[in-house]
Amino acid sequence: MQYQDLKDLYDLPLFTLLGKARETHEAHWPAAEIQLCTLLSIKTGGCSEDCSYCAQSSRYNSGVAPERLMEKCQIVERAQAAKDNGSTRFCMGAAWRGVREGTKRFEQVLDIVQEVSELGMEVCVTLGELGPSEAAKLKEAGVTAYNHNIDTSPEHYPNIVTTHTFQDRLNTIRHAQDAGMSVCCGGILGLGEDTEDRLKMLEVISEFNPQPESVPINSLMPMPGTPLAEEKKVDVFELVRIIAIARIAIPKAKVRLSAGRTNLSEEAQTLCFLAGANSIFYGDKLLTAKNPAVEKDLALIDKLGMTPQAPNRTLEAPEKDDAKPAEPALCSPDG
Ligand code: SAM
Ligand code: DTB
Ligand code: SF4
After folding, report:
1. pLDDT at position 226, please?
2. Residue 213 has pLDDT above 90, yes or no
3. Which of 40, 213, 322, 327 is 20 to 30 A off residue 294, Cα-Cα?
4. Mutate to test the pocket of ligand 2, among 258, 280, 284 (most ligand atoms within 8 A of CB)
């Protein structure tokens, strides 16, 4: 969806926008279903990149100690526990710039994915940059979706990250899609961006061909020691508007209310679900930051009469529209 159309949605009275988002939601999704996803940081900290929101960058004194890649058996144990607790998607994150075929760690990741995928949940990984051959190997090993966020607008991105470009992010997304993986791509609100940046981010995401299978909307968790540690909180109504617009612009995607739920009241989260969010990270920890307690989430889901979604193991990547250009319209070659 083009910027002006997104802006027109943004400018609607909130109830009109929510009405449209609801209508879209119910045309594509069961009204009261929510997907529960479990996150696990399989390789924490010590990252070479300088993403200014991230506690895992080695450039900042965030207090997150660098760790080695977790052992396969521990990861599989956690995946089994997630399944037993009702999660239908298991997302493994690694604090790497990227992965390269032929390296020991990539072979280890493929082995881990293979075993986790046998548990029958959707398997998502987020490992940083990928080339075509790495993407093909991950798909073959059983990854159902690759998470790679663009995080903000192309214009604001260089203010947030300097060690890789917006175009690098787009290239990885293209490689994941070309390998037949579904893509999970979203961003973060609260990086000092303005409304135009937020809508431009949604423009890029909604113009992917095919559109992503899921769209995580994170609110910045300000991490001590990072350059954005003192950034101010995102206004709840801004968050709700962005979720509603994401729902309308990317109707078939799971819109995931991601980082930042610990700062949201139950009522605020309910407004986000009403606006079209139909997935959450479930479990007391995100990668390094806190997430609401499992019991609290289950109680809220129960109070709202929502039901956890069944896994969709086939998770066929959405079809490409051959009439549209393959690359997002907004991007310039040098990012
Ligand atoms: N290294 C890989 C990468 O950059 O894609 C994977 C891990 S990275 C931590 C995954 C995503 O987590 C980021 O793209 C960002 O959207 C989100 N994230 C990281 N730190 C965050 C924070 N402090 N608050 C909110 N979201 C955050
Ligand atoms: C996403 O968009 N959010 C998740 C997941 N994808 C990998 C990560 C949130 C990280 C929050 C900060 C932390 O835990 O360090
Ligand atoms: Fe590294 Fe990913 Fe954190 Fe950036 S967001 S510093 S690439 S772990």
Report:
1. 98
2. yes
3. 213
4. 258
Nearest-atom number in ligand 3 for the CA of 97 is 7
State pLDDT tens for residues 62-74: 999 999 999 999 9
Q: What is the mean predicted confidence (pLDDT) over 187-206?
A: 98
Q: How confident is the model at residue 316 (pLDDT cuts 50, 70, 90)?
A: low
CA distance 236 to 219: 10
Nearest ligand 2 atom to the CA of 56 is 15
What's residue 265's pLDDT? 98
Domain count, the chain: 1
- DSSP letters of 25-80? HHHHS-TTEEEEEEEEEEE-S-BS---TT-TTBTTS--S----PPPPHHHHHHHHH
Q: Which residue has the CA at smallest separation from atom 6 of ligand 3?
A: 57
89: domain CATH number is 3.20.20.70
Instruction: Say yes or no: CB of residue 9 within 6 Å of ligand 1.
Output: no
List, for residues 82-131, the tens digit of each pLDDT value: 898 888 889 999 999 999 999 999 999 999 999 999 998 889 999 999 99
DSSP tag of 159? H
Mean predicted confidence (pLDDT) in 190-205? 98
**318 in a domain, yes or no?**
no
User: Which ligand is nearest the CA of 221, by number?
Assistant: 1
Q: Report CA(55)–ligand 2 centroid distance (Å).
A: 10
Residue 27's alpha-carbon distances to 20, 110, 148, 232, in angstroms, are: 11, 37, 27, 36
For residue 48, which atom of ligand 3 is closest to its CA? 1
Quick check: CB of 54 below 6 Å from ligand 3?
yes
Is residue 177 within 8 Å of 214, Cβ to Cβ?
no
The answer to whether residue 149 is domain-embedded is yes
